[in-house]
Amino acid sequence: MIYDLCVIGAGPAGIAGAIRASDLGKRVVLVDAGPLGGAGIFDGALSSKTLWHLSGDYARAHRGDRGYDGGTLAVSWQALRTEVAAACREAQVYAERELASLAEPRPGRGTVERVIGRAVFVEPHAVMVASRRIEAERFLLAVGSRPRVPPGIAVDGVRVITSDHVEHVAELPKRLAIVGAGVVGCEYATIFAQLGQTEVTLFDRQERILPFEDEDLSSVVAHRFGELGVHVQRCAKIDSIQRTGDTATIAWTDEHGAAATATYDRVLVATGRGPSTDGLGLDKAGVACGKNGGVTDEGTRTSAPHIWAAGDVTPDIMLANLAELEARQAIEDMFGLDPAPLVHEAQAAIYFLSPEVAGVGLNEQMAKAKGIDYRAATVSNKLNRRNIAMRATTGFVKLLARRDGRLLGLRVVGPQAGTAIQGVALLIGQGDTLEAVERCVHPHPSVTEGVLEAARVLLGRSIYKPEAHPDLIKVTE
Questions:
Q1: Are strands 247-253 and 119-123 parallel, antiparallel or unpaired?
Q2: Among 100, 64, 56, 332, which Cα is nearest to 194's?
Q3: Pick from 176, 276, 224, 212: which is nearest to 381 by CA?
Q4: Which 8-state DSSP code applies to residue 106?
Q5: How many other CB atoms are found less than 10 A from the CB of residue 100?
Q6: Of 112, 103, 91, 104, nearest to 36 (Cα)?
Q7: Distance, CA of 468 to CA of 245 (rounded, Å)
Q8: How would you classify the pairing of strands 374-380 and 307-309?
Q9: Does the reported pTM lie above 0.90?
């Protein structure tokens, strides 16, 4: 049998693509070595976020300034790992149920056959999975990514680890070093610091953490890290990481040019991820890879006319929601539906830190780099009644717009930040303006009222005036 489509990879992109193709009545084979769900569930998007929520619950319950004393609470790492595993299995079961329902043909719908194993191209239209040959008219590459490790660092999976290993360590480390202060590194720094059992040191070669975000945002997170006891080594150049028995020693050059060493129970290398394209035999399929391993040529199309790609194998932001959108668009493109292009300017993301951070569109440094003439309003959470009620007023809302009022971007820092960005994401995708934010009726009290007030500030008709609260409202003209 020649399938209409072979999807390689069963993470967020692969599953979404296979299901969308079945909607169109296609015969699909979904090939993946497992586990089903990939990094969208395991050792990634779901598992780490579950651990983040649990660690945050513990940190809040352990506080003594909220009308109760939780000082006697204890942490069981094994119990936490069990709960994370349960969450991952719940999500996987629903994915399994969905695919099982698509295995049998039904009127007006295609089928999805799942084949467990690693696919390797042997011809442009054929892959081998173990001893089975699979032929298809079209292919979707959705093989995801894996941790990228800098040259000279030897990961052993025990003392020197990546995000593939960190959630499986047998016990909470007393001393944890994290190399890399991007989203992944800062997320795990937050998790382990909130559990209160680990001394965390974060190494980064930049002058500040989260360097791709504006300085006001990274400074709030850095200040909170200080409160949590996270030590940040800025402008650090790692010279070596050596395992020494049951520990690992890092030698580095600090921000003053001085040599330093320290020993840790575990070293987590969190220096980014790269596409998992090696070993696929892409040369046999006519697919050219870029220098970073990405395979797309234009949009979700590759250099081979019968092969599309989605998710972490494309050279853009690695997000599960974007992977699903790319996969669905790729399917519609390959089968002639002429889908609308993705609006990358409206892609939203959440950083699971302390405090929570969420954003969509441009920040100030991005707007400056693009030469865009913009205005921005930053409103402190201290003015938001929901934050006051939560007794959590650290952070702010920052809204950016062009001079003509068209929305450019939003950053929210504080509790429930991820719930406050979708409206602006929709408006940015539609090319809408500040007036549209103001016209929207916001519930009270809610975090999104901070977004509303920021829009009103830029429109010159805010309730809280910048001149009355110069320490809480900032306008960038």
A1: unpaired
A2: 56
A3: 224
A4: B
A5: 11
A6: 91
A7: 60
A8: unpaired
A9: yes
Joined together, the tokens standing for residue 430 give 């539609």
Between CA 81 and CA 191 the distance in angstroms is 13
The residue with tokens 């020993």 is 263
> Domains along the chain?
2-146+274-342 (3.50.50.60), 160-271 (3.50.50.60), 345-476 (3.30.390.30)
- Residue 101 makes CB contacts below 8 A (sequence gap 6+) with none
In the numeric block, the tokens 């969208």 are attached to 40
Q: Which helix (H) or strand (E) holds 233?
A: strand 231-233
CA 415, 419, 424, 428 dihedral sign is positive
Q: Provide the residue type at 375 as one letter.
A: R
Cα–Cα distance measured from residue 55 to residue 78, given in angstroms and rounded to the nearest whole number: 13
CA neighbours closer than 13 Å in the CB half-sphere of residue 57: 9
Tokens in use for 218? 């990274």
Q: Which two tokens stand for residue 97?
A: 């149920």
Check whether 368 has a pLDDT greater than 80: yes
pLDDT digits (tens, 9 = 90+) for 409-456: 999 999 999 999 999 999 999 999 999 999 999 999 999 999 999 999
Query: Phi and psi dihedrals of 40, rounded to 5?
Result: -70, -20
Residue 79: which residues within 8 A CB-CB, separation 6 or more?
Answer: none
The pair of structure tokens assigned to 92 is 């996987």
- In the DSSP assignment, the letter for residue 40 is G
Cβ 10 vs Cβ 32: under 8 Å = yes
Specify the pairing of strand 247-253 against strand 145-147. unpaired
Per the omega criterion (within 30 degrees of 0), is the bond before 35 cis? yes
Report the helix count and the strand count for the chain, using DSSP H and E.
Answer: 12, 25
Reported as a single tens digit per residue, the pLDDT across 281-325 is: 999 999 998 877 788 777 899 999 999 999 999 877 888 999 999
What type of residue sits at position 299?
Answer: G
- 3-state SS string for 77-98: HHHHHHHHHHHHHHHHHHHHHH
Q: How far apart are CA 139 and CA 285, in angstroms?
A: 10
Whether 452 and 427 have beta carbons less than 8 Å apart is answered as no
Residues forming beta bridges with residue 237, ordered by sequence position? 253
Q: Decide: 323 and 311 in contact? Cβ < 8 Å.
A: yes
State both tokens at 226: 């200080």
For the chain, how far is it from start to end, CA to CA, in angstroms? 63
- Helix/strand/coil percentages in the chain, nearest 5: 35, 25, 40
> Among 267, 313, 307, 264, which residue's Cα sits nearest to residue 285?
307
Which H/E stretch holds residue 365? helix 364-369
R_g (Cα) of the chain, nearest Å: 24
